[in-house]
Design goal:
This protein is of the alpha+beta class. The chain has one domain (about 5-255). Helices cover about 25% and strands about 30% of the residues. The chain is built from 4 helices and 11 strands, in the order βαββαββββαββαββ. The strands form 3 sheets. Strands 1, 7, 8, 9, 10 and 11 form a 6-stranded mixed beta sheet that branches. A hairpin with a 5-residue loop joins strand 4 and strand 5 (about 115). The two termini are about 30 Å apart.
Length: about 260
């Protein structure tokens, strides 16, 4: 089991929740521009697939097939902009635009000479989506029992323990950058320490699956689920050469002020 993660979350009153926005700041922890690029692609593919699933009533493909081509620019100021978007389905087009629009700017990225860099990357997705169902009869491994840990995009290491640490640190950064609870007049969430127990599976396809959350307040549970669902696609864990499902346990204590 992972060590308890402790975050200090400072709450402010806003007239409008920013809950739908996502930060990809964790990708700036990558060791190179190439691994950062991989991190961006993995994140956005996962976020797009979640958005398409949540808005599937707006996507009417019928018996037709479609292909989405997306090219994104991350400019010198860390803003995400669509350079090219090609997909016939209007629903897919609009949802993709909204997803990129809701990506928060990230910090500037500089090379070893201190020059601020920009980046571009491409994503292609085929529709209708072919889902591979999760079979509960299959063995589920833990981080301690699996031979090779799942890999967070941008993490590269020879030792399994180093992969686990890198993944844990990146997930921690992701949660710290994206967990937003905004106090409302009718909010039941109280100040002070609040514990949230989270578990999820990184399945054999690299996606987060079977999320389970337990907290005292439903607002915390709902926000935790949203944040975990926005994690990027990862390289799945392996036993030998076989990709396997790996259980990830994440107990957290938030100090709400």
């Amino acid at each position: 089991m992972l060590k308890c993660l402790v975050f200090a979350i400072f709450l402010f009153i806003y007239s409008k929740s920013l809950g739908q926005f996502i930060s990809l700041e964790a990708c700036n922890e990558s060791s190179s521009i190439a691994s950062r690029n991989t991190c961006f692609k993995s994140y956005i593919e996962s976020i797009l697939l979640n958005a398409f699933e949540e808005n599937k009533s707006k996507i009417k493909l019928g018996d037709d097939s479609d292909k989405l081509h997306l090219e994104v620019l991350v400019d010198e100021n860390g803003n995400f902009k669509i350079i090219h978007l090609d997909v016939k389905n209007v629903g897919l087009y609009k949802i993709t635009e909204k997803v990129i629009e809701n990506l928060l700017p990230i910090s500037k990225y500089k090379n070893t000479e201190g020059v601020t860099l920009y980046d571009t990357f491409n994503i292609e997705l085929d529709f209708p989506l072919k889902k591979i169902p999760h079979t509960i009869k299959e063995k589920i491994y833990t981080l301690q029992s699996v031979e090779k840990s799942p890999e967070f995009p941008g993490c590269y290491a020879d030792k399994n323990e180093e992969l686990r640490v890198c993944m844990s640190e990146n997930i921690k950064t992701h949660i710290a950058n994206n967990f937003n609870i905004f106090l409302k007049p009718n909010s039941r969430v109280k100040k002070g320490n609040q514990r949230i127990n989270i578990q999820f599976i990184i399945n054999k396809n690299g996606f987060v699956d079977d999320i389970k959350v337990k907290a005292k307040f439903k607002e915390l549970e709902k926000e935790a689920i949203r944040v975990i669902k926005s994690l990027p696609k990862m390289t799945p864990g392996k036993n030998g050469k076989e990709s396997v499902d790996v259980l990830f346990l994440l107990p957290m204590t938030f100090k709400l002020q």
